Amino acid sequence: MKAIVLHSYGGPEELRYEDSEIPEFGDNEVLVRVRATSVNPVDYKIRSGAAKARMPVDFPAILGRDLAGEVVDAGRNVTGFPKGMRVMALANGTYAEFTVAKADVLAPIPDALDFEKAAALPLVVTTGAQLIERSVKLQPGWTVLVTGALGSVARAAIHVAHRHGARVIAGVREKEKTQAAELDVDEVVAIDSEREIEMLHDLDAIADTVGGRAIQRLFKTLKPGGVIGSVLGVPEGAREHGIRVEAMMAVPDASRLYELADENARNQFTIPIARTMRLEEAAEAQRLAESGGVGGKIILVP
Ligand SMILES: NC(=O)c1ccc[n+]([C@@H]2O[C@H](COP(=O)([O-])OP(=O)(O)OC[C@H]3O[C@@H](n4cnc5c(N)ncnc54)[C@H](OP(=O)(O)O)[C@@H]3O)[C@@H](O)[C@H]2O)c1
Q1: CA separation for the pair 244, 161 (Å, rounded)
Q2: Is the pTM higher than 0.90?
Q3: Does 190 sit in the ligand 1 pocket, CB within 6 Å?
Q4: Could you read off the pLDDT of 125-174 as tens digits, one per residue?
Q5: Model confidence at 293: pLDDT above 90
Q6: Are 218 and 206 in contact (CB under 8 A)?
Q7: Is the domain of 131 the same as that of 239?
Q8: Cα 235 to middle of ligand 1, angstroms
Q9: Assigned domain for 15 exists
Q10: Å from CA of 21 to ligand 1 middle
Q11: Helix (H, G, I), strand (E, B) or coil at 284
Q12: Which atom of ligand 1 is closest in space to residue 294's alpha carbon?
């Protein structure tokens, strides 16, 4: 099969489109023909070595977390995944024509979603939901600020927070406020404007997808005992300010993925797709995604 193979840490040019063995599957695993995958920030953080401490790589490596494809074959203990079934998952090694996933991470693709739309979802909707439900542990009636609100994880988090009965504030850059009017939120705040930050106070929670200086400037907006849920680790200085932080790493959850994909298919929330490119263009796709401001997911089609 063809795959995008990484041979060492470095720039996008280290991603090579080449021949690779079709992976073998175990008794509890499914071989899937990848019909679409997508680029996530973690892919280029792994590629560059920036995520080396948390997620070391054995080279040669095939990156990619999002899977949308068709079942080719399955291990002897697997039931419910007939050949040809359309499946999606938060998986590994998806920058390839074929990949293997454990059966228990696979969900059916809702009929209304094509492979490309499905491939945009697994990592970002799983993360957005777990950020709200497991890290923030959101309660009905809370006010939550979601940072980086035009991003994909944040859009999923906003949707899930609303479903849990929260008042949701979108945190974006000042220059993005017009675009943020498209978001289904109760209020939009420029989190790079000290004047607007001053007007925020007694928040129950912040769901942070941005990190760095941006989240540090927001510490003072939390009520005493408030919580920061973070997908980017514990922000520097939080502990010194007595702020409770629940940092998280997304874990596959097939049934929650199916529910969120179904809600996405019913247009209850949107994960915009900025571009669709061929798998062999993965290096260029990562270069684009890494430069920021793409405005949505980049899908890769083998
Ligand atoms: N812990 C986990 O398990 C986990 C899982 C998934 C993702 N993540 C992390 O979560 C982050 C978001 O992922 P994603 O897929 O949602 O990426 P994304 O779609 O690129 O979203 C990030 C959003 O934040 C915006 N942004 C960046 N800096 C900002 C700032 N200072 N103020 C306001 N907005 C800002 C970006 O705008 P521009 O594009 O204009 O810069 C973009 O809209 C990434 O760092 C990713 O690695 C963690």
Answers
A1: 19
A2: yes
A3: no
A4: 999 999 999 999 999 999 999 999 999 999 999 999 999 999 999 999 99
A5: no
A6: yes
A7: yes
A8: 15
A9: yes
A10: 33
A11: helix
A12: 39
Q: What are the residues whose beta carbons fall under 8 Å from the beta carbon of 208, sequence distance 6 or more?
A: 147, 148, 215, 218, 228, 229, 230, 231, 232, 235
Q: Residue 18's pLDDT is what?
A: 98
The structure tokens listed for 294 are: 């793409």
Note if the bond before 60 is cis, omega within 30 degrees: yes
297 and 238 co-located in one domain? no
Q: Which amino acid, 201?
A: H
When the pLDDT of each residue in the chain is averaged and rounded to a whole number, the result is: 97
Planar angle of CA 212, 204, 149, nearest 5 degrees: 50
Report how far apart, in Å, the C-alpha atoms of 282 and of each of 36, 67, 95, 97 are: 12, 15, 8, 13
How would DSSP label each residue in 151-205?
SHHHHHHHHHHHHTT-EEEEEE-GGGHHHHTTS--SEEEETT-HHHHHT---EEE
CB of 146 closer than 6 angstroms to any ligand 1 atom = no
Whether 129 and 219 map to the same domain: the answer is yes
Going across the sheet that includes 167-172, the strands are 187-190, 167-172, 143-147, 203-208, 222-230, 244-247
Range of the domain at 207: 125-247
Digit-coded pLDDT (tens) for 167-197: 999 999 999 999 999 999 999 999 999 999 9
